[in-house]
Structures are given as structure tokens and as C-alpha cells.
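User:
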Amino acid sequence: MYTVAVKRDFIARHYLTGGDWGDENEPHAHHYVIEIQLEGRTLDAHGYLTDICDIEAALDSRVAHYKDRMLNELPEFEGLNPSIEHFARILCKSICAEVQTQHLAAVGVKLWENEWTWAQYRENF
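Assistant: Predicted structure:
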């Protein structure tokens, strides 16, 4: 199985809802790090799993959309607690919609909200 990964970082704000999580219930920022991992069993005629430029463009587009924004105010988080689990899923699904998945077996997004805490969401094909 081949794996290709690309990382980016950005700052966004949120506050948690639906429970008593102390300071997390107040608006605050995180320095997020997103890593997209693409997996597949075969390579294309050029020896690539997928075009990394396409992955970088999709990831840059997502980062630009969320950078310096309040997640709670965005339509994709309507009715959701903006946890890193939900955020990882939203990112993964939106990136999968933008990239060629012909040779891919899976796409995963790992999202850190600090040095120690991350969540991952994975789509299998």
C-alpha cells in the first residue's frame, strides 16, 4: 500500500457547545495542523498515486476557507459542536470532492488542535 501525505497549518476560532467544558465554551483560537493522507495499491502510468499538486491545491483551498474564521458561524457546522472530530470529517469529505480518487483506496485527514491532541477521519473507497 502506498501513502502520500501533505500538511498545512492555520489558525481558526471556535467554542464548544452542548456541555460544560469550562474555557472551551468561550470563543478561543487553535493553531490547527491538517495532514491529508492518501492511500492506494497501484500507481498511475507516471508512477504517482495521485497528483500532489491537486492535493496541495485542494488543501490550500480548504485552509484559505477556514483561516482566521469562527467555525461556529460557518454553514457546515450548523447544528454541530465544532469538535476536532467533526472538523476532520468535514475537511476530509470536502477534499475528497475536489481530488481525483481513481487510484485511491482511502483518504484520511488528521487534524491537530495543539501539540498533543488530534482526531482523524478516513474515507475508504
